[in-house]
Amino acid sequence: MTHSSTTAAIGIPGIPGASGLGPRPDLRPQYRSVFISDTHLGTRGCRSDFLADFLRRTTCAQLYLVGDIIDGWRLRRSWYWDEHHDEVLRLILGHARAGTEVTYIPGNHDELFRAWVDPAMPDGLEIAGVRLVSEAVHVTAAGKRLLVMHGDAFDSVVRYAKFLALLGDWAYTAALVVNRWFNAVRRRLGYPYWSLSAWLKRQVKEAVKAIDRFEIALAAEARRRNLDGVVCGHIHHAEMREVAGVLYINDGDWVESCTALVEHHDGRLELIDWAARQRLSFAAPRRIGVPQPA
Ligand SMILES: [Mn+2]
């Protein structure tokens, strides 16, 4: 099968103009390309409901899945799957069927796929219209050449306090509340005050430094290959910045935040925060249907 990027998405429920009445070559997809990563489907943390909403309302000529899309192919105790996880897969395959060029670049949580990609086959392997490759070079409409890789190959620079890599505000606030109780108990037992806040601030400072090292390492890799920039994921921290003349872009994740990188038809790149844009609340309960009795 050839990858045509001229065909617009058709026949996908919920996509404006996608009536399913036949090809609509006049209907241009919304974006030239879309990059998402770290969706961690198969885990409870995945905001699969928001992701399904994003995939339902977004059309693009090229869709890059930049690793850690499906988590836990290896047998894991905590496998989690609901109807939104199903829907996400259905929507991705639907986009591929409708003419979107879908490229899957495995990460460390879906590294099983890496064994399927033969480095001798630069075109990779194609399954259900999804092209599987270990990494890719995307050329923007503006002619910028971007290395697309998950990023875990540079783990050695972020080994520090991964669990704390950018603690969310809410977690920080919650931790401080716990700390108040903790110190009330310590005081009663005659122990001196211990500042969780100061400790956390030190940890966060180290995590920020680790993220900086990661960004510098990936940008350096792009420069080494004479490319204009890099698009990656892995550290769950959306970012777009220039590092010594090279563009570093991290498309974020769909666990802690709900972010994607989009390329407009003129080659302009933009990070979008889907939860903020759609005013979706992380605190609201997920709309999950009642399972049908078997
Ligand atoms: Mn990863």
Give a list of the ligands: manganese (II) ion
Report the top-level CATH class of the domain at 31-150 and 227-277: Alpha Beta
Mean pLDDT across residues: 82
* Share in helix: 25-40%
Quaternary structure of the protein:
single chain
Q: Report the CATH superfamily of the domain at 31-150 and 227-277.
A: Metallo-dependent phosphatases
Supply the helix-strand structural class: alpha/beta
Number of strands: 12
Q: In angstroms, what is the radius of gyration?
A: 21 Å
| Major β-sheet strand ordering | 4-5-3-2-1-11-12
Please report which band the strand proportion falls in: under 5%, 5-15%, 15-25%, 25-35%, 35-45% or over 45%. 15-25%
CATH architecture heading of the domain at 31-150 and 227-277:
4-Layer Sandwich
Distance between the termini: 38 Å
Number of helices: 5
Shape, principal axes of CA atoms: globular
Task: Please mark out the parts with pLDDT under 50 across 5 or more consecutive residues, or reply none.
Answer: 1-23, 161-166, 289-294
What pattern of helices and strands is seen along the backbone?
Answer: EHEHEEEEEHHEEEEEH
The CATH topology of the domain at 31-150 and 227-277: Purple Acid Phosphatase, chain A, domain 2
Commentary on this structure:
The protein is an alpha/beta fold. The chain has a domain at 31-150 and 227-277: Metallo-dependent phosphatases (Purple Acid Phosphatase, chain A, domain 2, 4-Layer Sandwich). Helices cover 27% and strands 18% of the residues. It has 5 helices and 12 strands. The chain has helices at residues 48-57, 83-97, 169-188, 196-224, 274-277, and strands at residues 31-36, 60-65, 101-104, 125-127, 130-132, 136-139, 145-148, 229-232, 239-243, 246-250, 259-263, 269-273. The strands form 2 sheets. The protein has a 7-stranded mixed beta sheet. A hairpin with a 5-residue loop joins strand 11 (259-263) and strand 12 (269-273). Helix 1 (48-57) runs parallel beside helix 2. The protein is globular and about 70 Å long. The model is unreliable at 1-23, 161-166 and 289-294 (pLDDT under 50).
